[in-house]
């Protein structure tokens, strides 16, 4: 939306990351009234306002994360499938009240396990999470890496696990923080 007017030249792929509702609805409503939509809104913990986002702008993709009491990362030891099951059990219960208006869920926030083996383990963990989510009707935004993570050789190891094929087949997304 152009300041002082209501014309929208073309849709944007930009979105907003929120921790609280703040002024996000002050952005969503005028954009929707102008016949466009904000591409994405991400929320953490306080998720109820995403219902208002979806009501005003059904095309807006809503991504959410609940702070897991286990922490935002994982320790890349043990069986990644068992670790994923334990984490997903907590997450899916926490997500249930908001599932109608959240398109994608993040399980972790900015993980950076040590080395190639750590990222390979994380990819296996994500494969298990994706499969569990799929069976239970949830879509994930996998990984949620921070800027500069992972390194090239770690990306290569991740790709070799087949995690992106699993994600694509299930309609999941890749989350990267810029």
Label the overall shape: globular
Beta-strand residue percentage: 5-15%
Total beta strand runs: 6
Estimated structural class: alpha/beta
Q: Report the span from N to C terminus.
A: 24 Å
How many helices? The count is 6
Largest β-sheet summary: 4 strands, parallel
Order of helices and strands: EHEHEHEHEHHE
Strand arrangement across the biggest beta sheet? 1-2-3-4
As a percent range, the share of helical residues equals 40-55%
- Radius of gyration of CA atoms, rounded to a whole number: 17 Å
Uncertain regions: pLDDT < 50 for 5+ in a row? 1-6
| Mean of pLDDT | 91
Task: Please describe the topology of this protein.
Elements: E1 15-18, H1 24-33, E2 40-44, H2 49-56, E3 61-65, H3 80-95, E4 104-106, H4 115-135, E5 141-145, H5 152-160, H6 163-170, E6 173-176
Parallel strand pairs: 1-2, 2-3, 3-4, 5-6
Helix pairs in contact: 1-2, 3-4, 4-5, 4-6
Give an account of the 3D structure.
Strand 3, helix 3 and strand 4 (104-106) form a beta-alpha-beta unit. The longest helix is centred in the last third of the chain and has 21 residues, at 115-135. The chain is globular. The two termini are 24 Å apart. 40% of the residues lie in helices and 15% in strands. It has helices at residues 24-33, 49-56, 80-95, 115-135, 152-160, 163-170; strands at 15-18, 40-44, 61-65, 104-106, 141-145, 173-176. The chain contains six helices and six strands; from the N terminus they run E-H-E-H-E-H-E-H-E-H-H-E. It has a four-stranded parallel beta sheet, with helices on one face. It is of the alpha/beta class. Helix 1 (24-33) runs parallel beside helix 2, helix 3 (80-95) crosses helix 4 (115-135) and helix 4 crosses helix 5.
